[in-house]
Amino acid sequence: MKKQKIDISNLQPLIALILMAVAMTMMSDHFATKDNLFNVARQISVNICISVGMTMVILTGGIDLSVGSILAFTGAVAAGLFKNGLEIEGMNLFVGTTLFGAICIALVVGVFLGWFNGLMITKFKVPPFVATLAMLTIARGLTMLYTKGFPITQLGGQFNYIGTGWFLGMPMPVWISIVVISVSVFFMNKTRTGRYIYAIGGNERAAILSGIKVNKVKLFVYMIAGALAGIGGLLVTARLDSAQPNAGMGYELDSIAAVVIGGTSLSGGKGSIIGTVIGAGIIGVLNNGLVLLNVSPFWQQVIKGLVILLAVIIDKIQKEK
Amino acid sequence: MKASATDKAIIEARKITKQFPGVLALNNVDLRVYAGKVNAVVGENGAGKSTLMNILSGVYTEYDGELLLDGQKIKFKDTTDARNVGISIIHQELQLVPQLSIAENIFLGREPLTKMRTIDRQKMEEESRVLLSKLELDADVNGKISSLRIGQQQIVEIAKALSFDVRVLIMDEPTSALSESETTTLFKLIESLKRDGVAIVYITHKMNELTQLADFVTVLRDGCSVHESAVKNIPVDDVVKLMVGRDIQDFFVKQPHVKGDVRLKIENMSMKKSGKSGKYLLKNISFDVHASEVLGIYGLMGAGRTELFEAILGLHPTRTSGTVCIDQKSIKISSPDVAIKAGIAFIPEDRKHDGLVLNMAIAHNISLASMDKILKNGLLSANLEQKQAEMYREKLKIKSTSSSQSVAKLSGGNQQKVVVSKWLATDPKILFLDEPTRGIDVNAKNEIYKIIDDLAVEGIAIVIVSSELPEIMAISDRIITLCEGRYSGEFARAEFTEEKILHAALPQ
Ligand SMILES: Nc1ncnc2c1ncn2[C@@H]1O[C@H](COP(=O)(O)OP(=O)(O)OP(=O)(O)O)[C@@H](O)[C@H]1O
Ligand SMILES: [Mg+2]
Q1: Residue in chain B nearest A190 by alpha carbon
Q2: How do strand A86-88 and strand A93-95 relate by DSSP bridges?
Q3: What's the burial of A38, exposed, middle or buried (CB within 10 Å: 0-12/13-18/19+)?
Q4: Domains and CATH numbers, chain B
Q5: A190 with B359: Cβ contact below 8 A
Q6: pLDDT below 50 — which residues of chain A?
Q7: Mutation target vs A (from B338, B359, B373; most A CBs, 10 A cutoff)
Q8: CATH topology of domain A31-320
Q9: pLDDT value at position A1?
């Protein structure tokens, strides 16, 4: 009785994930090897970081389309600062930046862009779809301006380690996503703000009347989404050893897909971080499996779309019962 | 006239059984409904009344047992199917689309068309106007539903049900949000429907409506039908006894309250209508409430009762003026969280929109406005939260499978009990209640009166709005009346009479 009950709606995507993994194991010798599984885990770690933030945003009844662009911009800022330091033209000011400093500044940039999203949504009542769509192009534009359209490459081993290194027998990105998951699951289940996020998405008016500072919570959630997109940006940049100006394009879609497959309702109030992680896992296993099975990339896209539809339909049928 | 065995029921339910996960909502229930008769269905909260109606009207299609229409077996595929044979339902929880207009809601999904196949707005509005005037609702048919009070929305819902060709009209607690005069209008309408041969199923928790309105009564208890007869053959007290399954001795008797200091003082509270009309919804209202006092606020629909609460709570800070003092200290309430911090709790009238997060668990709803109480080292304690929920579940007899059940799965009355629990859990200094017993059964009502009474004895200041005069007279120490947004009278308990209070509440 004391233990928190496991939400049954989480179980369904998990079963799907297990079935897929079993099927893949039978179809490909390579799938269930340690190397490949770590490979999958590393690949999905970026999507997991973004999707955790996306889950919180969607739980409040919002959406964040700007995560891919914010990811690119923060990645570029981190790479640029690390490699070239902070140079302010016209003032003859040059500050070298350590890796840690570069990372911190990049994350602050992510938080700031998320804050801007939240401000538009709470203060100026711009619908989340529109506000974050605008940020999608704004942050992409900023990335282009900052990089002048060219990748920032050859960042060096230290930076690279975040994306490709190993620590205690596991790839760094996997460690990072585990930390992100643990902290956010704890946050959602154990803190007031976590509970308020559900309440706001479930019934905003009742939340206001319960004394919840709805705008503050929303602002916070978009800031978190920005920060997590920032972490995603660091991971992508570190893995490629370069910040690409068009990194993260379309990532918002994979992220929304993970959230939806994981059973979170797009109208808010219902869902979980764990569900999303499983959703990201399903997409990851699917991507990996289709490659292993030599399915053409064009078909891969078609199949991915169909899986998303299937997941949502099964979820609907289940709920109507 | 008594229905003999030869009278044919229009619709008949036979041995209906409905199982929800963990709950047997209906167990072998029979029901017969006759042309031109009103069949009342009564029972405690969660007895299965709404579930039965949902089966009769095609909302639930999976159940055991059978339905007979004019003696022929029938199975509805959906609500449209049921409507096509003349079965129309007014649900307990309103089902209107808030963003659409009254007329659009009434004709939703079957808009009249012009020759050009576009929507015939004129016809739609015309017919809506006729329906509304029949129900004596004075509202613009092009006005949005969201701008209406819940009672007015209820009337639109009734208008909608009547706009179909009805043979069987099901009404699930239609008067729970209506004022007295609206109820009278509705009853007149029901009489005329009866004359037209419409069969009516009528669910209510107000026992006086039984004798006023019903020809037959069916009593449900825990999903079983325990009694069925003509109303005149059974005294109301026995009906209540059958509902509860035992004698209820402890009817509510108010305790004396020793009035304390002034807790809350409102001065010159005014609130403008939204938009540019410059009209006032509230004008210069002043009153105070003392510790250990129950102040009743009575007024007709539109008198500004709910608006007064909303104004005090800081829901419309830009349109509100006036001062609020709590314990002699002036306080500026710009939003509900300030009010809650200052010790005010507010049990709203509209549980679905203002009170509950429907897909959240009972326990989570109860703790939502008082999260501090379930924190341990700054973190939520599932244990404390559960304990609190269990306490209220027991105290208010919230019928549910567990405290982690989602509120959406509860019957209407039990949802209301969750809202009440949520606000009691905030340990308020000042408690506002807006129609707190809406949809709550006789027995649980007494339970809530007792809780309010005890809270007053403990020193809490209580302000209660109710459109049921007997209710407000039973529990209040003092009553003030509002009329068209203005203060219109005040009565000490010794002076309470229905006539005087009603007179003060009526526009002069
Ligand atoms: N969708 C559902 N899922 C699970 N249980 C349900 C559902 N709907 C109703 N129930 C349960 O079935 C029982 C009967 O509910 P119902 O709504 O019919 O009660 P009621 O007699 O209308 O009560 P009230 O007077 O409070 O409106 C209750 O115990 C309720 O919790
Ligand atoms: Mg009901």
Answers
A1: B380
A2: antiparallel
A3: middle
A4: 9-246 (3.40.50.300), 262-343+429-508 (3.40.50.300), 356-427 (no CATH)
A5: no
A6: 1-6
A7: B359
A8: ABC transporter involved in vitamin B12 uptake, BtuC (1.10.3470)
A9: 36
